[in-house]
Every structure is written in structure tokens, then in C-alpha cells.
## 1
Amino acid sequence: MERLPGFRDFYPEPLPHTDVWSADARQYIFEKWRSVARRFHFREYDGPPLEPLELFTTKSGDEIVGQLYNFTDKGNRSVALRPEMTPTLARMAAAHERNYKKPVKWFAIPQLFRYERQQKGRLREHFQFNADILGETDPAADAELIALLIDTLRAFGLTERDFVIRLSSRNAWQDFYTKGRRGQSPAAPNGGKEEYEFFQVIDKLDRAPESETARKLSALGFSLPDVRRFIASGAPTPELDAILRNLAARGMKDFARVDYRVIRGLAYYTGVVFEAFDATGEFRAIAGGGRYDNLIKLISGGRVDLPALGFGMGDVVLLELLKARKLLPSFDARVDVFVVIQDEELRLQSLKLAEDLRCAGFVVDYPLTPSKPDKQYKRARELKASFTARLESDEYVRITNPESRKEIVVGVGDAANHLN
Amino acid sequence: MERLPGFRDFYPEPLPHTDVWSADARQYIFEKWRSVARRFHFREYDGPPLEPLELFTTKSGDEIVGQLYNFTDKGNRSVALRPEMTPTLARMAAAHERNYKKPVKWFAIPQLFRYERQQKGRLREHFQFNADILGETDPAADAELIALLIDTLRAFGLTERDFVIRLSSRNAWQDFYTKGRRGQSPAAPNGGKEEYEFFQVIDKLDRAPESETARKLSALGFSLPDVRRFIASGAPTPELDAILRNLAARGMKDFARVDYRVIRGLAYYTGVVFEAFDATGEFRAIAGGGRYDNLIKLISGGRVDLPALGFGMGDVVLLELLKARKLLPSFDARVDVFVVIQDEELRLQSLKLAEDLRCAGFVVDYPLTPSKPDKQYKRARELKASFTARLESDEYVRITNPESRKEIVVGVGDAANHLN
């Protein structure tokens, strides 16, 4: 029996096959995400992996609707496995925002799902680090969020030579759009369908054929050279300028720069948007995010109006990048202490020793059934045991450091104190 | 917009409403589970939350089939959100067992799903700590697994006065069944449909009406008094005896006892089975497990034959029990350092200070926008800041312990060394 296409099995290392993923590397990534978020005083939340379909279809734009992993449940509800976390966060925040002092700084590590027509090797799920700030319009919040993104990537050993944050602004593009439409056919209302189409064309600028882009822009009343000139100018808006100065004060000047090619696909973004890319351009975006000041109002039916911004960082591109830069530690099996049972008469006492050492916080293993001491010491080496501990009698234990070959015999109750 | 019935939202504490769950308590429980499993040298794995329906329907018995959260996906596959982890583990182990030395000791913390007719307040998902040992038939493996279960519950502060492991054996019940059928109508083959029906009656002994139980037993050729006598005898089988002696050697004598009322509902169990209950009997089972020596063979179509055993411990009953015993710590927001910005001229330098302290490992917060120092100190107290740090100039920072009111002024670069 096989797992479903596009889903992953996570095994302990060393990995048995190239087709499966490392549970240890996944946990390593999760722990870094969590610890950096906590240092920035972001607090953890989570929602259901399954949500009403409507939560995603009405708010996120066409980009996401075609990729939803949706179905009808036994209760005849239209539901979807979450494709992104932001609508859930908006729903949760709208329900209980009064309980929390603003600005709210929250993070989550959800598993996200999508269902596209099958492409070989294309995943249908991934994990994503989500961090959001709610209740603050000042660019200081954008800078705090981007600083978290930068420090998260630095926590893995990545440096300013490895990645860059490309900063952009929907506001800047909105100005460009509004000015471009002026004096033409009746201007589309702000945030209208044509403006969204324009943003979609910009979002695909580097990926779509040039002739197609030019044709689409022209139909919307714009020229490709004008667009390229605007991107090349790269003049920061006042808010982008404030963010850059804020980041520079933190010593993060070299990690971010204005790049108007970034605009983000999702419909709900409103202000600053950004993406993290590896410096060589080999990989897809490492992370992306921005402001969505209207989403909570939309999702709460106008009941709650909170400015908000956030980013998401997936586990798949990050893992590829860390592997390519040789920044992933080795996760082979290892123990602190391997309890050797040479004399089976001492098995029960050896179990007690193992239990005591575990209670003292050590990672301990031992042979479940009788085996030759040679085999046991071999196993201890395989497990890279920092120490072996072998009872000599009811009362004494021989502790050996297999590396240095240093040995010591101590009272059983004293063993834990000699394991360092 | 509301979340789906039976699903949970997890919020940071203090909780905004009784209808939602604590993300902090969840993480506290996950971290305990993970750290104790690691001390026992169990290694983490995970599989997809969505699996082919067939993985669950053919192996787990009728108990689980009626409760599956299953549907047809866009690719016309019959799929189910996993209701339990063991079939996934069996699938994964069967695929790559050759890569791992036996015995294999693995754990996982999956979210599991079920879909029953709606009962008010009944959850459709929970998280479960799963630990399994593969490749060892000796009761020493059962004892190791049960010791992990006991130490996991002890790690939360629960003692032998709070919970007990009820040990039982499908083998003992099989003997009872086989002896009882002897000389009657042609005996059902071992593991046959009638034997499974008999196990189901035993499993529901405490919950079903006595008259119904007596009638069903009689139809299978058994009498309720005989069954009750067998349970009351409680004579341990040799394997249960070995487990009890093994646990006693570890100082865990008072945590386990033989109780033949336990038999476990799932069809795939073969030998020792057990459940953890709170001592007062207020709650449903805290955990349950046992041997399933034939499951991997079944799932791999006979290709791989590995004895196996495991347990699952859900987050919901455990949380109820910890709350009732007042063993849950408080998880209110708190920071190590709150950086006070009194002079806005020093904002950029204060950001640098916050960043440096975060890089040094401290949980740091600060006001994103200008606010009165009084309000900032109030916020620091709300966040139970261990220290406040306020720049006096470009060069000097005043560090205050709000508890002791002790203050010190030090060079900016030296601040991290004075935070303890």
C-alpha cells in the first residue's frame, strides 16, 4: 500500500531512500522557527487544518481557488484543507481580538494543502512558518516583522551573502496604476477588477512571455517600457524608506532592498509586500508576505477593523537551500549513555540504572534482550554513545568514554554525576 | 464566519473564551511528550494526515470504519483523514524496515480525525502521542514501552496516586475463549469472526447493559458469571508476570496491575494490551495500546513480518486530568527584557539594543510606536518583564529589575551580561 501522491513520509535519519523526508530535519526547522519567534515575543496559535470552503474562496483571489484541496463532507458541508493560514488567523483574530493588547504578534506552523493537476514530484502539502502583526499601521510594524524574517533565516546560518529581502509596495503600484489610467477611459474604482488584473500581470513579469505581457498591459492601457522604467527607478516610498532605516539601525542594512518586481499574487494585500530570495536566484522564493489591512474587516463582515501584516516561509525551499549551502547538521541516531548488560544476573538492576539516568535527563538505551558484550559495545559505537555504563555488581558501575577510553568505577547512585 | 463543528482553535493565553483552547498548553504537552520519548531513545517520524481509505478500512476492525472522516478527492481517489497512526506506521515500516536496526523505537505526535454523527461538544480531531517498538517479541519490549508511558505521565507531575496502568492480554482471553468453545459446536478458527465478537462484548462489559451482555455471551457459548470469575482471578500470564517484574525493577511497581477487563476494541491487537486510567475513574482512558504482531505483515501483503507494539495518548483527556489535578503551569505572556524608549531621539539605537539582546537569546519586546514612559513601564509589568532596559544615551543603558527595583547603568555593549 502506497501513500497518496504529493504527500510526504518523514523518517528518522539516516534516511532509507531518496523518496522520503527527514523527520529530524523537519523538527530542527520547526524548533528554530519557534525559538526565534519567541525571542521576538511572537506568541503561538493554531486553527483547524479543515475550514469552511467559503473562508478561502471569497477572500484570497483566483490564484488560490483553482488549487484548493476541497470536498463535501459527510454532513454535506463544503470544506477545504487549508491552503494558507491568513484567512484562519483573520477569522480567529476577528472572533476574540478584544482579549489581546495591540499590537498582537502571533505565529503558527501549520501544514498547508493544495490540489493541482498532478505534476511529477509536485507536493500537495507543505509546512509553513507564519508570523503576523495585527493592530498597527506604522511601518515600524513592517520593519519588526521583516527583522523577524531576517533573524529566522540567520538562525539557520544563512548570511547576507545567501539571501535578500526584496521590498515592494502595493501603494506604489496603485499610484502608478491610477496615474496611468488618468485621462483614459473611465478609471476603474480603486481595488477593482482591472487593477487586480494589472497586479497579476506584474506578478508574472519574470515568468510570462514578453509579448503576452506587453499585449495584456496594452489592453489595460499601459506600456511594458513604462512598467520596466518604474521598476528600474526603484525609488522607495516614504513607508519603504522608514522600513529600510529601521532595519539599518538593527544592523540589517545589507539584507533588504527595494525591488518593485515583487507584488505578490494574493488579492488581499494592500501596502508593503516583500519576498525573501536566495542570492543566487536558483530557488523559488524562500518566504513572502505583506500588509493586508482590509482582510479582517472582510472576514468579520465589517464587525472588526484591524490593520495587519504577515509572512509565510515554507519548509521545502528552505530545506533545499540549507542542503545546498551545507547548513543542515547531521541527525544520526545518538545517545548520551548506552547501558551495557554483561552479566544477565544484573539485568533488573541495569534497568533501574537506565531508568535513573533517564530521570536525570539523559538519553539512554540498552539491549532489550541478552546479547554478547561485543555486540553491545558495537551498538554503543553505532549510537555514538557519549558514555557506556556497565554494572560491575549491585553497587558499582563502570563508566567508559568510548572516545577517550577513560574509565571510572563509581557507586550506582553516583553515576549521573560522572556523565559529562 | 465560524470554524467547522468539532474542530478547535488554539489561542495564546490568557484564553479569550471558554470555547477555545490554549496553544500554550498544547505546546507544553507536545514538548513533554517529545522530551521523554527522546530520553527513552525513541525517534520521531510522521506520515501524511491524508491516506488511502483502504489503509484503514481493511485492517482496523468495525470499531473505526463507522467513524472515518473519508471522502473522494478531485482525482477520484477514496481517501480518509487519518483516524489513528498505527496503519501509517505499519505502512512506513514495511516500506523501509531494512534501513533500521531492530528493535526500532519510534514516536509521532499526529493530529487524528473522526467523523461521527454530531454530538454536542464532541471533538472531530485530537492530537495523539504515539510510541511503538518494532521487531521484538520479548515482553522486555512491552515493559520498555509501558515504562515510557509511565514516565511520560510522571513528567507532568502525575504520581501513582493519580493514575494506574491496567495490564491485560489477548492471549489470556484467547485461551479462555478456546477452552470455552471446546466440545461445543465446531470451534471458530483462531482470530475468526466469532472470537472478535466475543472480544467486542468483553470490551463493552462495563458500558453495556448486563442483560444484553449475558445474552450475547450466551449466544457465543459463554456465561457472564464465568467471564466475571476469570476477570476476578486476575492471574497474570507468564508474559504479564515478566512485564510486572521488569517494571518493579525500575521502581514502577505501584503504577501497573493486571486487569482483564481491558481488551481494546481494535481488531489488530494480538498479545499484551493495556490502558492508563486516572485513579478516581472520573475520566475516559488516558492512553491505550498493545501488541499487533500481525499488522505489518497484513499491510505489506505478507512481504514484511515484524512483531510490533505501541500506545497512543490523546491530548484531550490528559489536559482535563492535568487541569483537575492543578498540574498545568500558567502560560501568560512574559518577556525577559522590555526595552523602554523614553527619548524618541534614541529609538533607532534602542532597536539595535533590542536586536542585540534577542541575538543573545533573550525574549525582548519594545513599543513599536512612541508612547508615554508610564504606559511603557505598565506594559513591562503586564508582560512580567524580568528586566527593563532604557537607553540613557548612545552609550549607556539603565537596566532595572522591576521586582527588586535594583537598577544599574552599564555600557550598551555590556547589557546582556547584566540580565540575570
## 2
Amino acid sequence: MTIANTISEIVRIDLGDRSYDIVIGENLLGQASSYLHLPKASAALIVSNTTVAPLYEAALKQALSEHFKVIHTVHLPDGEAHKDWVTLNSVFDTLLAHACDRQTMLFALGGGVVGDMAGFAAASFMRGVPFVQVPTTLLAQVDSSVGGKTAINHPMGKNMIGAFYQPQRVVCDLSVLKTLPPREVSAGLAEIIKYGPIADMAFFDWIETNIDALMACEPQALAYAVRKSCEIKAHVVGQDEREAGLRAILNFGHTFGHAIEAGLGYGEWLHGEAVGCGMVMAAHLSEALGFIDAAFVKRLTGLIERAGLPVKGPLLNATDNAGKYLALMLHDKKSVAGDIKFVLIEGPGRARVSVAPEATVRAVIDRCCA
Amino acid sequence: MTIANTISEIVRIDLGDRSYDIVIGENLLGQASSYLHLPKASAALIVSNTTVAPLYEAALKQALSEHFKVIHTVHLPDGEAHKDWVTLNSVFDTLLAHACDRQTMLFALGGGVVGDMAGFAAASFMRGVPFVQVPTTLLAQVDSSVGGKTAINHPMGKNMIGAFYQPQRVVCDLSVLKTLPPREVSAGLAEIIKYGPIADMAFFDWIETNIDALMACEPQALAYAVRKSCEIKAHVVGQDEREAGLRAILNFGHTFGHAIEAGLGYGEWLHGEAVGCGMVMAAHLSEALGFIDAAFVKRLTGLIERAGLPVKGPLLNATDNAGKYLALMLHDKKSVAGDIKFVLIEGPGRARVSVAPEATVRAVIDRCCA
């Protein structure tokens, strides 16, 4: 596999009048040229969090000052535990305190949580204002900032309240990944690895070959992985924006993963860690249902482990662990009429969404948990 | 003017794949046939309030029982003062407590507040579930249930948080209007009268002729007024779903009206009362800017008065009343970059959105307030 020169590449998300570009490259965040040709607006609001703002907000503000007369900022508390209505409301409070109008453009500067909340704020403020994603984690660059899913959590379920709302642009600055803690890099790799078994085994081969370079955040390797991930996601989302069918395959590993996150309490494991482990469990379920062989499960598990991710599910309940997982998965958004819908690997590079017999699921959970 | 036989008429809202029908007629709410051919779902949630539910929920539930296996209900506290996040969240709590899935269909049974909140809940729950409007006030039947505007209030502004989200159907049962208090009838007539000066003077003539029949809730008169109002609104919304331009003319009277509602505290005046008075003020402003003559202002004011609506604005501040109105109007969603956008009558039956000199607006407020 060759790694193309990927500095400042563009991946187009094709959604008719909601189409937009993902711009990928080094040192993009602080360049005014990254924000050319956006809809006209006099004011911008940078939505960031208390961890990311000190690192990158000044550079973004400087770049935006060439395009906007006024730039406001709001800093959310860091972490999935704050992805709730109270935090979201602080964005609305800021917008209204500054008398922002319906042309105000929001900039989501941060990881998936900031992107989800700034996106839902943009979707809802005055019934919709434009926004731009400036993801600063690997996970956000390859997954959450792309495709228009925005949401907050409800005490009874993750991402239960939100909107499909597309950004005007996604600016993926690879340079910011250099400051990312290793645990966050691994979490991002989970979503990158995901694209292999569901859609593209050649990419999976490439990840296996380059996993050490990716773990070390080598720019060329990251650039290729980000671009490829965005291309695959763009292709899927372009066919099914509102998750009527196909798009659900992007949730491979997420049904078990959400149960882990909810069962441990949001924020205990990173989302990517839960997805990594969830993919192992979903692969075992696919094997138990006869779709794939043990060798492929072992190969996928090995790569997930090399990416520094957990491959054993946590115990969520001492007396009926499988029952606890099942109860939590029943609240997954893919569940319909009391049936849990799993994303299964039909064969390497091909996914399907399907129900599964409870006994089989219980056996898989028992086998996969520590 | 002849009044057509309007029992069970259909007005189509043409919005591509978001198109839907408004069904207008007597005794529709409790008939199973009113809910045929909706998307397949196993569960329904009726969202109503503590005033309307005792009157109509049983009949709706009975009718829906032929289409849904399970029907849940949630009763919101009555009134604009409760159109907030806390109340909205009670809808999400109910949906999640019953493990509702993303096919669950919401039914908004009530006036504008219920419709706005159930609609926004439907737009946001799991990023969007289908919903049906069953408006039980005249105002909701001729205005708020049609066109897909949903929202809740923020302490700093009305309808500041919401979505453009279209229902699957609107079922306008004229029979329910018989139990409506006279004050609510008048409030609904404000939005009916509105369609005349902005779009259709023949309809305005008809309203003038039939105002007594409308005040008395005569079914044939109401049926014609509801259908005609929905047709005009459908025509405008069909051209500009997300209020990029033309649709804003439907806010005639609403800029001053929102200031009245916010200044007095939401719920003090009914929305329709504030709009009625706001139309008088906007007409005076249109005259002051030279668009229409005093005779037309007088004619419009006379009809609004005959409809039982206030025509003098309340004093919102003892020392600088006009300044208070201006400050409140600056928070209106139509305002852009610090300019208040007014919907003005350019000539009878024709509206435009425009800024106005502050001195002129102040003079109009001084002249129009009690």
C-alpha cells in the first residue's frame, strides 16, 4: 500500500443541498484560508471545553478574525458526563446574552462531546444556525464530526435527544493530534479499525501493517487513515443520511459498547474503548450465528488489542451480568419493538443489521466478559 | 362569497418527501379512519395537557387503538409558561420509561403549546420520530400546527430553541372548537385575520362579512376560515419551508406581539391577543413609512376590535416604554446584526420584511400604547 501525500486533501460529503467538504491536512486550524467561502455572517461562537480551549482557541480565534466582526466563546466542562441539557443550555445562554442572530456561525472546537453538543445547539438555536466542525481528537476526525449526527445524553440513554444536522464544513487538522494522550489515540483507532470489517478489507490490511505508525501518530499514516475513514463514512452517509437502513452498519461495536458505557457510567471508559471491546463481542456473536469463522474473530481481536484497546467486557452485574447487558441494549436507538438490533459481520468487509436469539447473545456475553 | 361544503376536506402541504395532508372536518378526532395510512408503528404516545386530556384523550385513544398495539400518554401542565425544557423533558422521560423505539409515533393533542412541544420532542427523540398534529384550538388549527415550526421558550426569548420538523398529518377537528372559551376563539381569529392583509384581500372581505358567524363558532364559517387559512399558509410554506425569506411574512404582528408577550410575562396575554394588537402596531408603522393609508389602518383595527382582541399596546415600562419594546424586539429571531426586521404591509394583500428608523418605531409605539 502506498501512502499518498495527503496534506490538505478534501473529501466531499454528497447530500444535495446539505453537501459539504471535509478538509484534511496539517496546520489547518489556525489558517484563515481554512474558513473561506462559508455562508456570510457577522458573528461567530466558538464552542470548546476547558481542556481544549487553552490549547487551540487563540489560534482559531485569530484565523476567524479575518472573516467575522465579532467572535464569542463558550467553554463547556470536559467529558461525556457533561453531555446533557444543562451544559447545552449554557451555549444557548451565551448566544442570547450576546444577542446573537440566526446567521451566527458556531464552531465546534474539541472532541466528539463538544461536536455533538455544539452541533445540536446549532440545529436547535432559532431552529437552526450554520456550524463548522473543528475536531481535535482522532475519534472525532474519523467518525463523530462527519455525517451530521448531533445529540445529548438522557439519564436513561446515550445520544437519546438530538438531530441529524449537517455542518457547513469539517476542518481536520492533523497537527493537533500530536498533543493527544495515547489513550485518546487508541480510542480513535477503534473507529478507524471499524471501517475494515464492515466495508473495506484492503483498508483493514493496511491498518494491520501500519498499526505501530498509527499508534505513534506518524503524520503520513494518520493522514491516510483519516482520509480513508472519512471516505468510507461519506459513502455510507451519502446513501442513507437519516439511518433508515445502511447507515446503521457504522454502529458496529456500538450496541455492546453503549451498554458498557451506560453500565459503567458514562466517562468511565472512553467511547472508543467501549466500541473496541464492543466490536470483539459483536464479532463473537457473528461467529456464533455462523457468519464468520473463529480465525477472523481472532484476527480482529488481535488488531484491537494491538491498538491498545480492551478486548474483555467489564462485569456490569455480579448476579446476572448478561441480563444487565441485555436490559441496557434494549434502550439502544436501533432497538425496535423490543428487539435488539445488532450490527453483525456477514463476512469480512460486509455488515448487516439483525436480531439474534437471546440465548446466543447471553452465551456471547458470558464468554466475552472478564 | 359562497361557503363550500367543507366537511372532511384535505389541504396538501407540498414539501417533496416531507409533504403531508391537513384533514379538516367535523368529528374527525375520534374516528379511526382519520389515522389511516400513517407510517407503520407498534406504539403511540399521546402528548396532551391537563386541560385538554380530560375532554378528548379517551376518544383519540379509542380511535388509535385500531392502529397501534400500545398507546402511552403524557399530560403536560397547561400554558405558555410551561413551554420549557423541564416540561419537554417529561415527554422524553415518558418515552424512555416505556422503552419506546424510533418508530414510536407522537400525537400532539392540544393547542399551540402542546403542538410546539410535542413536535420538538418528536424532532429530537432519537434524532426524529414521526408525529401527528391534532390541534384543539382555533389558533393551532389555522397556524401553529401547520408548517413544521416546533420550539420551546428560553428565559431570554420565545421559541428560541426548536426545529423545523414536519408532521405526518394534521387532523383539524372542527367539532372540538365548540368547547373553546370565547377568549381562545378571538385569539385564533387574530391569526385568521392576519392572512388577509399579507396575502388575500378577498379573504379579508369575507372575514369582515362573516366575523359574527366566526365569533359564534358557526361550523360552516369556521370550516371555510380554517381551510382558507391553511391553504394560504401551505402556499407560503411550500415556497420557503425554513424561513429564508418569504415565510417571514406569516409573522405579521408577531414582532410587536412577541415584545408584548415577553414584556408582560408569557401567558399574561394569549399569543393571539398579542398578535392582534401587534398587527395594529405594525399597520401603524406601515402607514408611518408611507406604504398604506390611514383608512386601511382603521379598517384593519376595526376588524381586530370586532374579533374581541385588544388594539392598544400595554405599557411595558413607565419611564421608557418605547425603549423597552425596542429592547425586547431586538431579541426577535428575525433580527439580524442588531437590526429589528418588521413585517410591513406594502399595500392591502401584500407584505414585506424591512427595517425601520428607530425614531419612527418609537413614535408608533408611543401612539399605539394605552
